[in-house]
């Protein structure tokens, strides 16, 4: 039997490369302003985006380093060397004090912009956690408690960010309001959200927000979130309403998406097609409970196997996990674990599920797994070790399961983030 793991990894690598700041950012950077470029970046690709901007302005255009300032707030372990732009490593998915420092300093720099300055905002997935600046009367600890409740609820990322935007002094258009005196605000974003909704990417710090305080309160009720009384009061305070269309803050603001999940999924599809596979493209915007989506995809694989088809089933998007157990994992590992449960009697099926940022769930460490792979080797180890995928799934303990089988995919930080890539090869 052919080892399909190199092909699976090549498809993942192609998806990441299609969205890497080193190859995509420079073509989108705006021309030089009369004054300074104030570069504010947030997210898992923030430092890489800042470094790419430095190469363009300082090296290619010869801009004096005194005219380029800024702060890139990124996840711990995602630092790259920069010259003019400070890098701050902060918590993700749980926000921390360094994220607070980065957000406060970024807001102050935005407020310092003059009519000659350009405010250049570079966003990537993870920016919502990295830029943590709680609304008045909310502490960092209370915001962390709310984040923890949101992450455990199983709510899709758009709903999570609806709540976050109404508990922040930088999200929901407020960064644009702070930098409204600048000659212009240009935001370049790597999308990590389904349907590439601008207000959901890093919780939309420079764009109008269509969601409301009432929406946020409804989500707290729907998911029965355990939140502090101060947070509940903040969601009733009209001062915490986000910026809406027509706000003067957006008069000179431009927003462009420079990498999308669709582009990365297409890059993976091309690799599969060149390897001789027919393609089932399930789209770049899938949402839903990871184990349920895996069950549906496993049926597609079984049907293809029964029909004797050589098929690659691909999807993107961002799945969720409603945490009920005490184990470790993330949505991609849980998806792979559920696939293993449904496909364990099909030795000629292989699959990969991974987050393009290089971290699927985990504790916020650079060594967290990106996801997992499964194939005949996995099924054989399950048998020899007497591992029960159903029991591991019940405890949300995919990481321990795949540690035992040796099937965790560990890539380290990729310095970009365009959601998940899932592939099943039949």
From TrEMBL:
<keyword id="KW-0418">Kinase</keyword>
<feature type="domain" description="MOFRL-associated">
    <location>
        <begin position="8"/>
        <end position="235"/>
    </location>
</feature>
<dbReference type="GO" id="GO:0005737">
    <property type="term" value="C:cytoplasm"/>
</dbReference>
<dbReference type="InterPro" id="IPR007835">
    <property type="entry name" value="MOFRL"/>
</dbReference>
<feature type="domain" description="MOFRL">
    <location>
        <begin position="312"/>
        <end position="420"/>
    </location>
</feature>
<dbReference type="Pfam" id="PF13660">
    <property type="entry name" value="DUF4147"/>
</dbReference>
<dbReference type="InterPro" id="IPR038614">
    <property type="entry name" value="GK_N_sf"/>
</dbReference>
<dbReference type="InterPro" id="IPR037035">
    <property type="entry name" value="GK-like_C_sf"/>
</dbReference>
<dbReference type="InterPro" id="IPR039760">
    <property type="entry name" value="MOFRL_protein"/>
</dbReference>
<keyword id="KW-0808">Transferase</keyword>
<protein>
    <submittedName>
        <fullName>Glycerate 2-kinase</fullName>
    </submittedName>
</protein>
<dbReference type="InterPro" id="IPR025286">
    <property type="entry name" value="MOFRL_assoc_dom"/>
</dbReference>
<dbReference type="GO" id="GO:0008887">
    <property type="term" value="F:glycerate kinase activity"/>
</dbReference>
<dbReference type="Pfam" id="PF05161">
    <property type="entry name" value="MOFRL"/>
</dbReference>
């Amino acid at each position: 039997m052919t080892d399909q793991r190199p092909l699976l990894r090549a498809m993942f690598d192609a998806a990441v490369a299609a969205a890497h700041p080193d190859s995509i950012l420079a073509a989108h950077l705006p021309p030089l302003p009369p004054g300074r470029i104030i570069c504010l970046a947030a997210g898992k690709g923030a430092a890489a985006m800042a470094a790419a901007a430095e190469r363009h302005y300082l090296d290619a255009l010869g801009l004096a380093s005194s005219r380029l300032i800024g702060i890139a707030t990124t996840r711990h372990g995602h630092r790259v060397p920069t010259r003019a732009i400070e890098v701050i490593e902060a918590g993700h998915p749980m926000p921390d004090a360094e994220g607070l420092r980065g957000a406060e300093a970024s807001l102050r720099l935005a407020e310092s912009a003059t009519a000659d300055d350009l405010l250049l905002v570079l966003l990537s997935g993870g920016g919502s956690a990295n830029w943590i600046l709680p609304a008045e009367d909310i502490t960092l600890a209370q915001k962390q408690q709310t984040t923890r409740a949101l992450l455990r609820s199983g709510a899709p990322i758009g709903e999570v960010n609806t709540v976050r935007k109404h508990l922040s002094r930088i999200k929901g258009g407020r960064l644009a309001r702070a930098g409204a005196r600048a000659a212009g605000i240009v935001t370049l974003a790597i999308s990590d959200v389904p349907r590439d909704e601008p207000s959901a990417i890093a919780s939309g710090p420079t764009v109008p927000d269509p969601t409301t305080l009432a929406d946020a309160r409804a989500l707290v009720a729907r998911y029965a979130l355990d939140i502090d009384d101060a947070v509940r009061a903040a969601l009733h305070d009209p001062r915490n309403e986000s910026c809406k269309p027509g706000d003067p803050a957006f008069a000179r603001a431009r927003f462009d998406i420079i990498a999308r999940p669709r582009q990365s999924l297409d890059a993976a599809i091309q690799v599969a097609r060149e390897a001789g596979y027919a393609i089932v493209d399930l789209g770049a915007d899938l949402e839903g409970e990871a184990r349920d989506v895996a069950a549906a995809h496993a049926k597609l694989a079984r049907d293809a196997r029964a029909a004797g088809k050589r098929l690659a089933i691909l999807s993107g998007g961002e799945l969720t996990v409603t945490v009920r157990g005490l184990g470790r994992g993330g949505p991609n590992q849980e998806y792979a674990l559920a696939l293993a449960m449904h496909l364990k009697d099909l030795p000629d099926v292989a699959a990969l599920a991974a987050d393009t940022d290089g971290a699927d769930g985990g504790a916020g460490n650079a060594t967290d797994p990106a996801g997992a792979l499964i194939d005949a080797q996995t099924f054989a180890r399950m048998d020899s070790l007497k591992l029960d995928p159903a029991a591991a799934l019940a405890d949300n303990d995919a990481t321990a399961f795949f540690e035992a089988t040796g099937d965790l995919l560990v890539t380290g930080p990729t310095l970009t983030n365009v959601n998940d890539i899932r592939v099943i090869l039949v």
